[in-house]
Design goal:
- The chain has 124 residues and is α/β, with parallel strands linked by helices.
- The protein contains five helices and five strands, in the order βαβαβαβαβα.
- A five-stranded parallel beta sheet has the order 3-2-1-4-5, with helices on both faces.
- Strand 4 (69-72), helix 4 (77-90) and strand 5 (96-98) form a beta-alpha-beta unit.
- The protein is globular and about 40 Å long.
Length: 124
């Protein structure tokens, strides 16, 4: 069975519960997790599960050009813009960037109730 490959950016309040679900899903392979703060619980969880971690999401994006999905749960517009630019510069037409709102929808479906973000709504 081919697994869905994922790179996750953001390992804080929003990212950690989603990361746990992704790591527990037998059909998902989390290749790496990035966050500026390598002391966050999501980073510790990734390390426990032998998933690569980095403070440099751009380096991970460049190193993993065939990852299926990049999940951005940073809540930072600058990260969203940089991801778009990286995809355009590399000509990557394979990878899909998933916005935090979509990640919250996925988490809400699993929880059976609306999951709130720790970040302010900034649009996409």
């Amino acid at each position: 069975m081919k697994k869905i490959s994922v790179l996750m950016i953001g390992a804080g309040e929003t990212g950690t519960p989603l990361l746990r679900q992704l790591l527990d899903a037998p059909f998902v392979e989390v290749h790496a997790v990035a966050d500026l703060d390598l002391a966050l619980p999501g980073i510790a969880l990734a390390r426990e599960r032998q998933v690569a971690v980095s403070h440099d999401f751009e380096a991970l994006v460049r190193a993993l050009p065939m990852v299926d999905i990049i999940i951005d749960v940073t809540g930072a517009p600058v990260v969203r813009e940089r991801l778009r630019t990286l995809m355009q510069e590399s000509g990557n037409a394979h990878t899909v960037i998933v916005h935090e709102r979509v990640a919250l929808l996925m988490m809400s479906l699993g929880a059976g109730e609306l999951v709130q973000s720790a970040h302010a709504e900034t649009g996409y």
